[in-house]
Design a protein that fits this description.
By secondary structure, this protein is α+β, with helices and mostly antiparallel strands. The protein is built from four helices and seven strands. It is globular and about 55 Å long.
Length: 125
């Protein structure tokens, strides 16, 4: 981000960020096994990754599911099976902030992402 320590400037940078920067902001830590394997602490979350919720309400902590959608505008992700009950009795997906989850399984169907991870893995050995 910016070198300023002023909260106002940090918030402004988040609100005015371009899409490329927003995508990087929706990052989560990797699980211990993935961290050792890929020699990275965190990665941007994408649709198809499997994540474990580690912070939040008691009823959702410990829930593991596949990422259905990533909302870069709000910095939140929609996870399969994590819903909230609405007043009319229907259920709606519950957005979770990316910092409250850890990635337990990566979706490596994207060749660019796979090559990038392998390159980082080989380069820092």
């Amino acid at each position: 981000m910016i070198k300023s320590s002023k909260a106002r400037k940090q918030r402004k940078a988040v609100y005015n960020a371009h899409n490329v920067k927003r995508r990087k902001m929706v990052s989560s830590h990797l699980s211990d096994s993935l961290m050792k394997e890929y020699k990275r602490r965190s990665l941007p979350v994408i649709k198809g990754d499997t994540v474990l919720i580690v912070r939040g309400d008691e009823e959702i902590v410990g829930t593991e599911g596949k990422v259905v959608r990533v909302d870069t505008k709000t910095g939140r992700i929609i996870i399969e099976g994590v819903t909230i009950n609405k007043a009319d009795g229907s259920q709606a997906p519950r957005p979770i902030h990316a910092s409250n989850v850890i990635i337990t399984k990566l979706d490596l169907s994207d060749p660019w992402r796979k090559n990038k991870l392998i390159g980082v893995q080989e380069g820092s050995s």
